[in-house]
Amino acid sequence: MGRLALVAMLAVMSPMAMAQQMYVDVTNNTGFPIWHLYVSPASASDWEEDLLGESEVLENGRTKRITLTGYKSPRFDVRAVDSDGDSYTRMNINVRESDVVFRLDDIDV
Q1: Count of Cβ atoms closer than 10 Å to residue 7 Cβ
Q2: CA-wise closest residue to 90 among 98, 99, 79
Q3: Tens-of-pLDDT digits for all 109 residues of the chain?
Q4: First to last CA, the chain
Q5: Which interval of the chain is the signal sequence (predicted)?
Q6: 8 Å CB contact between 52 and 35
Q7: Which residues contact 38 (CB under 8 A, 6 or more apart)?
Q8: What does pTM read for this prediction?
Q9: Residues 65 and 25: beta-carbon distance below 8 Å
Q10: How many other CB atoms are found less than 10 A from the CB of residue 26?
């Protein structure tokens, strides 16, 4: 009976064990304040909600740590929008291997 309970418990915990907590540090070196910041799984077709919200700004030279909980893959797309409305996008970033630094040269064309 104990063995059956262990198997049942492992079956329930399996999906939770596959989802991991990760993070990515996003640094703003654009020369402009970043007003909007989005991080979505690389497989997503839309951006998730703005991580800065209505009141937070990522000032030039500052870094924000984004905690990513409940995702299976470490690959994410990251987008920032500065105070002029210019956007900066990095696609398919493996957050286990690198963080994101946005520079003025990274502006989306």
Answers
A1: 10
A2: 79
A3: 566 665 555 555 555 555 778 999 999 999 999 999 999 999 999 999 999 999 999 999 999 999 999 999 999 999 999 999 999 999 999 999 999 999 999 999 8
A4: 63
A5: 1-19
A6: yes
A7: 47, 48, 49, 50, 51, 78, 79, 80
A8: 0.81
A9: yes
A10: 24
**Rounded to the nearest 5°, which phi and psi values hold at 97?**
-105, -25
Q: How many residues does the chain have?
A: 109
**What does DSSP say about strands 20-29 and 100-103: parallel, antiparallel, or unpaired?**
parallel
CA 36 → CA 9, 20, 27, 39, 57, distances in Å? 41, 25, 13, 10, 8
Domains of the chain by range and CATH? 19-106 (2.60.40.2890)
